[in-house]
Structures are given as structure tokens and as C-alpha cells.
Amino acid sequence: MSQVLILLIFILVILAGLTFWRSRRVDNRFVPDGSIITVDGVRLHHHYFPVPEQPSELPTLVFLHGASGNAYDSRLAFQKSFEGRYPLLFLDRPGLGFSERNEARHGHLEGQAKLIADWLGALDIDNAVVVGHSLGGAVTAALGLVAGERVKGLAFLAPVTHPWPGGVNWYYSLASWRLLGNLFCQTLVWPVAELFAPRAIANAFHPDAVPEDYAGKIRLPLLFRPEVFRANARDVTGLKEAVSSQSQRYSTLEQPSLVVTGTNDTVVWPSIHCEGLLKELPDVELLMLDGAGHMPHHTHTPQIVSGLERLINRVREKNQDASDTHRTENSHERA
After folding, report:
1. Are 102 and 42 in contact (CB under 8 A)?
2. What angle do CA 153, 291, 285 make, to 5 degrees?
3. Measured between alpha carbons, how far is 13 from 34 in angstroms, rounded to an integer?
4. Helices 109-122 and 226-246: crossing angle, nearest 10°?
5. pLDDT in tens, 100-131
6. In this structure, what are the phi and psi dihedrals at residue 46, rounded to the nearest 5 degrees?
7. Has domain 2-324 been given CATH number 3.10.180.10?
8. Where do the structural domains in the chain lie, given as residue ranges?
9. Is residue 321 predicted with pLDDT exceeding 80?
10. 295 CB-near residues (< 8 Å, 6+ apart)
11. Position with higher pLDDT, 220 vs 194
12. What HEC string does 164-212 produce?
């Protein structure tokens, strides 16, 4: 028995050493190429593309990636379509990519939303249209709830926004456990992640093909570092309970909204999440993409860009109406 225990410890030490070595290789290979600012005691990474001589009424498009991702996913999909026409902000959500987080303060939807709201404040962004994919859709809704003064429009791409039947993949559950999860992330994440990642990516893009070198272009190995994988797992495993509570407040989201879904999305069920948003959001447009899977921002980009343009126009009209009303009220007060 003692020999078996010694062998097990030896194997774990070897795996931990390999994990440390591979994680350091990733840190050396991929370095932040955007901007890093400190908000609420944590370092946050983003890519910001302003518009020269930006008109004050032009909203900033703020992109929030989903689970297991980072800002490079949204950049890959949208930067070419919008750069130079609107100011763009691509965020590494707290704990993912190159962004840090404090688990106690930022390891849940409301905490992430408040941190992102402060992040926007630090960048002097007070007229934002937030575009969230998948799990990022839940964060988008949370941000709309906690920072309505800054967030003027909401776009949900294949979003997770409501409770669903069933659970999550076993490796997310295991990685999120307090003690065993940390051991798992420090020893087995690399082989497990590399084994399941190609299948998970193919499933997300199904029925479309995965774009060439997609994993390389989004710097996927950043996800496999133990602290990032664990943060991602905690986001996923805590999501169902979080949206169960949060979804009860969606009717208070008065911002113009866009909901995008694919008819062949087998990762996030449109019949639960998108239909729920359509029932509860007061000012919403649906963009249904025939045949699209869970990654429509990559496979049906032109249609989504057109939908976002319509949303931006709705936001600008609403902002103008609010400005006109404010001027009228001030005029009456002076009279």
C-alpha cells in the first residue's frame, strides 16, 4: 500500500512539474499585446480601437467573449467589420486571457459586471453597446442591470441567460471543487484539455467547419494555465444558479436589445435562452440565423454586423430622444 502511495505521489509530482513547465512556456510565448489597467486591485487586459475625432453620440462597441475564450475570439470575428467606423473595446473577461480577478469579489456574474462597469468608467466610456457571446451574454445582461447609465444597448449572441435542464461537463465540475479541483488543475489540465478541446471546438461550430487555425488565432493555450482554467470552470459551474436569479430582473432592462441565435445551436438551446429573452426584454429584436450553430459571429458575420448596425441606430435614436426631452425640461424650468 505504501509503495502504491509513493508511486501516486511521484506521478503527481511529475505531472505538476510538467504543468508548471508548459504554463511558463505559454507565458513566454504569449504576452499581452493590448493595454493593461488596474481596477479594484486587479490587472485587466483589453484592446481598444478608438475613432479619430469621434463624434460624441457614437457609441463604443464593447465585446465580451464566452466561456473558454478571450478577447481574441471577438477581435477575429468583428474587428475588420467595424474598425474605423465605431470605437471598439475587446475585453479579456476577469480571470481569463491576460486579465486577473479576485475570486471573492469577481467570481460571479454581478461581481464581474460591477468590475467591468468600473473598467468602462476608468476608460471614460459612458455610451456603450455591449455585445456578449454565450456565457458572455449572461455577463452582458448583468452589466445592463448594474450599469444602465453607461450601457445603452445590449446584444446577445447565442447567449446563456436562463436556467437549463442538466448540468455541465465533468471536467468543469471537477476543476471547480475547492481542494481536489486545485490538484486537478495543477496536474491533469493540460492532457485533459488538449484531449477534449478539438472535439469541443468542432461541436461549437457544428454544422459549420472550424475556421483554419482557429485555436492558434485565439491563443487557446492561454486557457490551459491552471489558474485560468479554474476560473473558467467556476464561471461555468456557477452560471445556472446565477441566471436563475438574474433572469427574474430582465424585464427591467429598458435598453434596446438584439438577440441572435442559430437554428442548429446544440450547445445553448434557443428554445430556452433566446425565447426567454424575447418574452422578458421590453425593447428587443430577434435575428434568427437558419442553419447556424453556436459560433454565428464567425460563420454568419455579415448578418450579425447588419443586426448590430440596426441596434446602434436604435440606441442613437433613443439617446437623441432622451437628449431632446432633457433640453425641453430644462427650457421649461428656465421659463
Report:
1. yes
2. 25
3. 35
4. 110
5. 999 999 999 999 999 999 999 999 999 999 99
6. -150, 165
7. no
8. 2-324
9. no
10. 158, 204, 205, 208
11. 220
12. CCCCCCHHHHHHHCCCHHHHHHHHCHHHHHHHHHHHHHHHHHCCCCCCC
